[in-house]
Amino acid sequence: MSNSFGKIFKITTYGESHGVGIGVIIDGCPAGVDVDEDLIRVEMQRRKPGQSKITTQRKEEDEVEILSGVFEGKTTGTPLALSIRNQDQKSKDYSHIKDSYRPSHADYTYDKKYGVRDYRGGGRSSARETAARVAAGAIAKMFLAHYGIKVQAYVSQVGDFKLKKHYSQMDLSRAEENIVRCPDAETAEKMIELIDETRKNRDTIGGIVSCLIENVPVGLGEPVFDKLHAVLGQAMLSINAVKGFEYGSGFEGVKMYGSEHNDVFVKEGDKIVTRTNHSGGIQGGISNGEDIYMNVAFKPIATIMNDQESIDKEGNKVTVSGKGRHDPCVVPRAVPIVEAMAALTIADFILRAKTSKIE
Ligand SMILES: Cc1cc2nc3c(=O)[nH]c(=O)nc-3n(C[C@H](O)[C@H](O)[C@H](O)COP(=O)(O)O)c2cc1C
Ligand SMILES: C=C(O[C@@H]1CC(C(=O)O)=C[C@@H](OP(=O)(O)O)[C@H]1O)C(=O)O
């Protein structure tokens, strides 16, 4: 039963959306990482439900309690346990779908796989679980800070509204200045309007979160199987509601000729760099020192407030409609989740790289 991620810097999450709480065990984090609890709080606030009019209205403070693995502000090299209490479950919103299946949520597959289904709030399949990933991601970011590595995600598309600028033409930190987390204020406004309109129509809409990882050393990733982009892809595709992943030139690259697409090597001081970066910072599964960038596509989420046709456990036709609090569009809250999964992946590969050759 796989509830874990990572090989050396490893996380295991636990908990259900309407249970007592959720949390994460981090195993393999080296001793001596400076832990800033305020930074954990900032990350949790960026993901928490109820943060604006364009997210689910469930109210969770998502305070993280560190139960182990940190002493006097530093990791001890032993497992960290981070715990988050659930506070605002409204399980009766799910009573009507106890025995029926929401189209495109995980109700049917969980029921068939386990035969036991915690239908309250989606149970383990709820994106509530991602709060634990963000808490662990905050620790991974603090580990990466010791290496000067920075991870920054932002919303680049909602429905048809798409950022037209390249990441290097924008100040990505400005994404945190608006509730949709898009670094371009004008595009952000259009995105917010579209999400709000969609919510009023009792529907949902999808979008794209883009992510940039800077200052990655050369040499992270394995030449076969655990290629860096393959594991990043797994990390991103393991997030609820993700339907697509691309890095570097991605799907657009197929339109180019090799002569345009190849990243020519040049010497800059005593460093070897590339003139362009269609490779997205990874060649042959191994980081080449350039920026790693990727796009993660999120579907319009399953629970819509309008009536939908479905079936119950016995196969009878039923009508289901969402009740309670749901996200009309997940991308504003998915930004810190994408960052967390990217940070966890890179942290793991930094540790793995230490075993690749004699220094
Ligand atoms: C940040 C975030 C918030 C989400 N909020 C909701 C929600 O309010 N309602 C819902 O039906 N699905 C929501 N989802 C998506 C479901 O968790 C997801 O669709 C479900 O687990 C089925 O998995 P799949 O879509 O990956 O197949 C959310 C996903 C993310 C990443
Ligand atoms: C609770 C969170 O988001 C939830 C994700 C979610 C889903 O189906 O994924 C469904 C909703 O659950 P509930 O009906 O229990 O409020 C969201 O609010 C969270 O992100 O912390």
From TrEMBL:
Top EC category: lyase
Binding site for NADP(+): R47, K53
InterPro entries: Chorismate_synth, Chorismate_synth_AroC_sf, Chorismate_synthase_CS
Reaction it catalyzes: 5-O-(1-carboxyvinyl)-3-phosphoshikimate = chorismate + phosphate
Keywords from the named record: Amino-acid biosynthesis, Aromatic amino acid biosynthesis, FAD, Flavoprotein, FMN, Lyase, NADP
One GO cellular component term: cytosol
Cofactors named for this entry: FMNH2
EC number of this enzyme: 4.2.3.5
Function: This reaction introduces a second double bond into the aromatic ring system.
Homology family: Belongs to the chorismate synthase family.
Protein name: Chorismate synthase
Protein source organism: Marivirga lumbricoides
